[in-house]
Amino acid sequence: MKPKETATIWVEWGYELHALKLDAEDWADIKAGKDLYAEGDGYEYEGGEFSDTWHFTGGIGGELRVTYCGEEEGSEGEGYIGSLTEDMIEIHGN
């Protein structure tokens, strides 16, 4: 039986790399072009903690939008908006 592929998606904003690890089911949905919302693991920046939400639309080559939100009012925004390209994807288990 062929192992199921998982993936890590990498984007950069604020001079830092941010990653989202996808399980086999979510990665299969993205490859099939389905819309997907996923919560990242969060991250720290300048002493604050931030959550990150990833929205995939249209599969590989489609749109990826990553938003973030901090603990303080007004500390939310868009970290990345653009296409999901092959060079942003690290495949595991193929």
Name the descriptors:
5-stranded antiparallel beta sheet; 94 residues
What does this structure look like?
With about 90 residues, the protein is mainly beta. About 10% of the residues lie in helices and about 55% in strands. It contains one helix and eight strands. Strands 3, 4, 5, 6 and 7 form a five-stranded antiparallel β-sheet that branches. It has a three-stranded antiparallel β-sheet with strand order 2-1-8. The longest helix has 8 residues, at about 25-30.
Low-confidence region ranges: none
Question: Helices and strands, in N-to-C order?
Answer: EEHEEEEEE
Percentage of residues in helical conformation? under 10%
Distance between the termini: 11 Å
Helix-strand layout with pairing:
Layout: E1 6-13, E2 16-22, H1 24-31, E3 36-39, E4 43-45, E5 48-57, E6 63-70, E7 76-83, E8 89-92
Antiparallel strand pairs: 1-2, 1-8, 3-5, 4-5, 5-6, 6-7
Could you write a compact summary of the structure shown?
With 94 residues, this protein is mostly beta strands. The protein has one helix at 24-31; strands at residues 6-13, 16-22, 36-39, 43-45, 48-57, 63-70, 76-83, 89-92. It is built from 1 helix and 8 strands; from the N terminus they run ββαββββββ.
